[in-house]
Amino acid sequence: MKEERIESERDASAEFAERFRSVETALRRYMAAHVPGHHQAEDAFQETAMALWRSYRQYDPDRPFQAWAFGIARNQALKSRRDAGRDRLVFQEDVASTLCDRLETRADELDGRRRFLDGCMEKIPEQHRGLLHMKYRDRKRIEAIASLVGKTPNAVRLLLYRIRDAVRQCMEEAWRQVRDREEALA
Q1: pLDDT(15) > 60
Q2: Where residue 85 sits, what CATH number does that domain have?
Q3: What CATH number did the domain enclosing 136 receive?
Q4: For 128-179, how does the pLDDT look when each residue is reduced to its tens digit (9 = 90+)?
Q5: Residues with Cβ < 8 Å from 143, sequence gap 6 or more?
Q6: Are residues 90 and 158 in the same domain?
Q7: Is the pTM of this model over 0.85?
Q8: What is the DSSP string of 94-122?
Q9: Range of the domain at 180
């Protein structure tokens, strides 16, 4: 009996961890957008994570986890804002609440765009992904990239432009397909 309870708690912990990881980035963005100050936003995020864990037994698995998590995050953001009310530049609670609502609705869209971007990046040749990584992830200058790949800086600029354009077109097509499916279902 005791072993079954322990196993059940392990399963719940693993399930929570998986669900939490799926919304972690969106929750961090949410807190960063709605709690003044980087450190305060990080503290609010940590408090939200703890509140989610403490409340997980009340979570209804028939509801979307992200919506439930954002409800708790919203309360934590508002609490953090009230606590920070002594600061000079703090939005009024109704303005903060409106911003929270808008970010919640945009979180799914932003996550969708990220998935589309990842999918489109997979479609371009590996060499082109490498150039984009050098430019945007590694923040290398055009001249340094040109030197590494044996091309002129102008050739690298043109190639990066064409790669970005291909990724943009791919993402637009992915969004168009989603909109077409949604319209067909409506």
Answers
A1: yes
A2: 1.10.1740
A3: 1.10.10
A4: 999 999 998 889 999 999 999 999 999 999 999 999 999 999 999 988 988 8
A5: 153
A6: no
A7: no
A8: HHHHHHHHHHHHHHHHHHHHHHHHHHHHH
A9: 124-186
